[in-house]
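Is this the right way to post structure tokens for a design question? Let me know if I should format differently. Anyway, here goes:
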């Protein structure tokens, strides 16, 4: 029992994902057979499409690479995002994977892997949500919420039509009926069409939860952050409120230590500040901290730039289009060409000197 509990709590397992699939499947089995004859052709087509899409994106979310960082792809992962010198600093090593942690990455204790741009580990897809599959996860949420909402609409529409057959003057608003009569009529409909009514009520109650989760993730996109990063920002907010956070400028022409930080990234901007905390609430006095100028105490998050916020639409592109992908390839080819040019020039110069 102890081993089973440890596995269920700390390791990857499909129990919750199976529960999610069964919840969707059983609800569809309950409502579709009695409701199908009562639907017109357009509603039938719409229903079939909406029932298939959540399974498609569940499969895509669960089976796609969320952004596993391996020794082979580590150099590429390092170039995806620059360090912001606030919540992500260069030179930090994962104690489990023993690799330098790229900016915006995190080690997942359940997957036992480092994940690029980790948002969170989702038990409903039995996978992490990260750089490689965040768009699939958002589409899963969107189409699941749409399916549930459409099922609620169809269910109440069918029940209302059946009520109308017995009460020709019936309307959705129940005009002409007192509240007790109105609820008695709906109670009769739910009793006569138990399967349709039960699934409709279930969908009515769960739709706001799914839409709320989707709305929260779009808020994170708007803010240019992830669930993991939002928790780090919350920690910084506490430090700032206590007066333990300081910042100063980083020169744009600084020389990077390329042993722990990539020489260039595909991200269009670089950090212009470094933010640190102190134990005593006094400005840092230790040597070797990047940046120039006097330290300035920071009291609120709005006084600190979020390097990864490019605006809502660019943030959205960064999620749904691994993005700037063409730009990145072109830039990498240009960098390779420049390096080859330098190598050829150096070789020519060396040959010339030897001839001389």
């Amino acid at each position: 029992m102890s081993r089973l509990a440890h596995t269920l709590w700390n390791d990857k397992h499909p129990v919750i994902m199976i529960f999610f699939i069964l919840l969707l499947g059983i609800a569809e089995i309950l409502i579709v057979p009695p409701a199908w004859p009562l639907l017109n052709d357009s509603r039938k087509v719409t229903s079939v499409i909406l029932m298939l899409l959540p399974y498609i994106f569940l499969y895509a979310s669960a089976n796609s690479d969320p952004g596993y960082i391996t020794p082979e792809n580590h150099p590429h992962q390092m170039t995806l995002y620059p360090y912001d010198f606030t919540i992500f600093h260069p030179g930090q090593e994962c104690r489990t994977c023993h690799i330098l942690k790229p900016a915006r990455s995190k080690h997942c204790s359940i997957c036992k892997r480092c994940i690029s741009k980790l948002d969170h580990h989702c038990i409903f897809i039995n996978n992490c949500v990260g750089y490689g599959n965040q768009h699939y996860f958002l589409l899963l949420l969107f189409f699941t919420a749409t399916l549930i909402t459409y099922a609620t609409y169809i269910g109440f529409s069918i029940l209302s039509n059946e009520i109308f057959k017995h009460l020709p003057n019936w309307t959705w608003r129940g005009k002409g009926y007192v509240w007790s009569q109105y609820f008695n009529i709906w109670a009769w409909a739910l009793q006569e069409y138990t399967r349709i009514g039960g699934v409709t009520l279930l969908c009515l109650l769960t739709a706001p939860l799914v839409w709320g989760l989707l709305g929260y993730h779009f808020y994170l996109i708007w803010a240019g952050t992830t669930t993991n990063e939002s928790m780090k920002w919350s920690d910084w907010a506490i430090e700032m409120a206590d007066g333990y956070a300081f910042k100063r400028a980083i020169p744009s022409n600084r020389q990077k230590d390329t042993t722990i930080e990539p020489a260039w990234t595909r991200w269009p901007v670089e950090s212009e500040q470094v933010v640190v905390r102190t134990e005593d609430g006094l400005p840092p006095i230790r040597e070797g901290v990047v940046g120039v100028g006097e330290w300035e105490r920071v009291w609120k998050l709005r006084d600190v730039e979020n390097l990864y916020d490019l605006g809502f639409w660019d943030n959205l592109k960064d999620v749904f289009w691994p993005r700037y992908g063409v730009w990145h390839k072109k830039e990498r080819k240009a960098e390779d060409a420049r390096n080859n040019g330098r190598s050829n020039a150096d070789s020519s110069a060396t040959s010339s000197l030897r001839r001389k």
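Format looks fine. Someone answered above. Worth noting: DSSP finds ten helices and seven strands in the chain. The first helix runs from residue 2 to 10.
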